[in-house]
Amino acid sequence: MSSHAKIITTATGLQDLLGDLAGETAIGLDTEFMRERTYRAELCLLQLTTRSGPMCIDPLALPDLSPLAAVLGAAGPPVVLHAGRQDLEVLAPTLGSMAPLFDTQIAAALCGHPSQVGYAELVRRLLGHEVPKGQTRTDWSRRPLSIEQIEYALDDVRHLLPLRERLLASLETLGRLDWLAEELSALERLDVLAVDADRAWLRFRGVEGWDEGRLRLLRSLAAWRERRAVARNRPRGWILDDALVREMVLRIPRSRDGLAQIEGMPESVIKHSGDELLGLVEAAQVPDPAPPLPKRERPDPVLVARTKRLSEITQATAQELDLAPEVLATRRVLEEVARGIDPTIALGGWRAGVLADRLRAAV
Fold it and tell me: 3.90.226.10, 3.30.420.10, 3.90.79.10, 3.20.20.300: which CATH number matches 4-192?
């Protein structure tokens, strides 16, 4: 089959493919998309693979991919991806929930591979094949696609089904299929893919100890920016840069002059959105003058020592299980436990089963 025959660009071709997919026991999936200039990722190519081999679907030639939901939706065979969260996010508006899912990166981490192991590295480790890296900087929105581009895209799904078989066999031997099911069920939740504008402020780090007025302002600024980015389909940083949001919250500008004094604040933002932004400042009711910012306190030596001890226990347990320590518990989770949160709650699920009692004894 030539590479040109491996890309579907007509509704008839898509219907024929649906017939071919109906009897499959698993379907590998990957996407190529662009999001540099938009808020929502623009799907530029969809790659699928079955026992018969890989093929591409051109969403720019076929804007309506909804017929695929019949095969890739909840009633279909397992959909196999690698580090698939972004692919699911891109496809969710068209295809809705896809389940059951199998993510080869998640499965590999439970088998003892690095927690963020790449697709090409995993293929090399488990199957002994080298995946070419030639088209990493491709503009996937440009047409026509070259034969080299199509082959590169096909390589991204070509090995997904053999990887799944290898990983399932390893997890069965290790007795960790329940762990995998738990991890994948979290991936299948559509609600975690959508960004809630009212929770957009949680992306900002280092706000502990800020006064309530500043936190109110941060929440409203982050939500305003998120909603505007969605409405205009532009990256949130194009609406207002993270650093500028933070500076506004720290300095509390109460006039257009105050906005203009923030270094890097674009004149166009002041001109078109200045009144709106000042309205958010006013609504946050930060006292004037604003409360002093919290001094950077030295880390609590008891907390630091406790977190270090918990980290050592986690590393030792991970070594026993042949897992990367961060698969068991992140630094943030260990700090929560050190501060007194119950390890069973902080860890949750299978992680609590293997680690909670040890951490609890140390605390």
Answer: 3.30.420.10
